[in-house]
Write a structure and sequence with these properties.
The protein has 275 residues and is an alpha/beta fold.
Length: 275
């Protein structure tokens, strides 16, 4: 018998004025599971992730239901939602240099995430938690690098710092919005391995958002494919790659080169074929 889903999204729609961004989508994520949400730019992936955290601007019209651990997030008072955000549900972004404060030491930034949600802890206990998170994401010599600034780290290390900030309060759900896009393939593989290790260690649920199916195949157990604000296909990762059912999914797979791609032929495009 499967456990109850940790996150359940039902009939979620998002519009900005008369422009729909997300159209009546539904999906679930169970404890310890990774759901890949994939699609090209503008398909509604990031709008969906921001809706889960209630970070969309006031101009957005959001309808449907978002249930986390049995609680309706859309009806929570703002203060209750702030307590969930950053503690129970966290997010990492694709560009760490814009997400990190350039004039604040990275250890202090991680510690601040603890202090906000656990203000009863002493300064020493907060620093210990920050250092533990840095150790978990394999930042070299955390004790010596605690007071270093973001520009003193490589791109992959900065992404690890963002992950440390996201996991330091032991969240139940991590939303990863294109977290490997700006990284080279070697560092991408390291970040994927790290996220998989954290999922196993902490029974962490992950919503992994990407346009890169190769990355999705390495981390997700199920995949939801978005096009023009709709989920057009939802399947296990194995089934989706073996037998894609929707024409858009087939074009998405065909547009990415593999070791078996015929280099004498052009790659497929994502444009809808002319009828």
């Amino acid at each position: 018998m499967n456990p109850a889903p940790l996150l359940e999204v039902a009939n979620l729609s998002i519009a900005f004025g008369h422009h729909p961004a997300v159209k009546n989508i539904s999906f679930q994520i169970h404890p310890g599971e990774v759901l890949g949400l994939v699609g090209e730019s503008g398909s509604g992936k990031s709008a969906t992730s921001l809706a889960l955290l209630r970070l969309l601007p006031d101009t957005a019209q959001v309808t449907g239901a978002i249930t986390f651990a049995g609680e309706d997030l859309l009806s929570l008072p703002p203060e209750s939602m702030r307590r969930r955000r950053g503690r129970d549900i966290t997010m990492i972004f694709q560009e760490p240099m814009t997400a990190l404060n350039p004039v604040m030491p990275i250890g202090v930034q991680i510690a601040e995430a603890v202090q906000i949600h656990q203000p009863e802890l002493s300064r020493k206990a907060i620093k210990i938690k920050a250092l533990e998170a840095m150790h978990q994401v394999a930042i070299p010599n955390p004790e010596h690098r605690y007071n270093d600034y973001p520009h003193q780290f490589s791109g992959g290390q900065r992404q690890r710092i963002l992950i440390a900030m996201a996991i330091v309060n032991r969240p139940r759900l991590l939303i990863a919005d294109e977290p490997t896009t700006a990284l080279d393939v070697t560092v991408q593989a390291q970040i994927i391995t790290l996220l998989n290790d954290l999922r196993r260690t902490h029974n962490l649920s992950i919503l992994f958002i990407s346009h890169d199916l190769a990355v999705i195949s390495q981390i997700a157990s199920r995949v939801a494919v978005m096009q023009h604000g709709e989920i057009v296909e939802h399947a296990s990762t194995t089934e989706l790659f073996r037998n894609p059912g929707h024409p858009y999914t087939r074009r998405l797979l065909a547009s990415a080169p593999t070791m078996h791609t015929d280099r004498s032929l052009p790659l497929a495009t994502l444009a809808t074929p002319a009828s």
